[in-house]
Amino acid sequence: MTIFGIDYAWSHPSVSAMRSAGVKFVCRYLSHDASKNLDRAEADRLSDAGIWMVVVWETTAKRALSGKAGGADDAREAARQAKACGMPEDRPIYFAVDWDATPGQQDDINAYLDGAASVIGRDRVGLYGGYYPVKRALDAGKARWAWQTYAWSGGQWVGRAQIQQYRNGVQVGGADCDYDRAMEADYGQWRVGVTGGDDMPLSQEDIEKVAAETVKELLHARYNRRGHTVGLALETARDGIVELLTRTPDVDDDAIAAAALAGLTPEKIAAAIPEEAADQVAAALAARRSAAE
């Protein structure tokens, strides 16, 4: 399963446009150009909307040729900006290699990554680039994280890259963006003060809204079909809850389902589904709650 995201610089889509497009995360810039950078206000808006963030440092395309000293300088400034945006200090920073880097340039790139690692730690060092510099850096152990673009890649993908940028020059809500997809559950994502791998408490409002809508849609579509049972409906609803409540990819799916079933009252779920099925669903939910206790 992949996770859909976008990246953008100066042209910002609205939160509502991103949610309508199904965007789950955004890749945002840190640099010396404040006009394209992520700032705290934007980070707060995205976090409030449930959209994850990752950050990439890029000033000039070939800055990564500046060696170890350049990498250390950039990592210090990138870490400062990221902290100001509310990024937890254990999350990675991707550093851009935004050109078709040759094998002969890899030593300088690796030295740049060494410099970054000397400031933020190797476990937080990521690399953005095409297939070859990404593969070479990962092979050499110079980066822990990788965001690969399809550019300069000849249709090849590095299987270890956590993020793929697979299409450029698209519009989301009238803003210029690129399409990305996360290939792993943990791709360096965060929200303000929250690490993507943390077990985050589910709000009762979220549980009730998503679970009720899932069960309502399910029963409208399937209630009168041959062989349908409320038990099957509840199992399918559980799967929907687990899929939709993706606050964090590392959370225990069974714990989410148990929380959802425990938190929903029969009255609330009955109000959200067809009247003819309400009593059966309420009874089934009550039975599950009793069994859980």
Automatic annotation (TrEMBL):
Rv2525c-like glycoside hydrolase-like domain boundaries: 17-175
One Pfam family recorded for the sequence: Rv2525c_GlyHyd-like
Annotated signal peptide: none
Domain of life: Bacteria
Protein name: DUF1906 domain-containing protein
Source lineage: Bacteria, Bacillati, Actinomycetota, Actinomycetes, Streptosporangiales
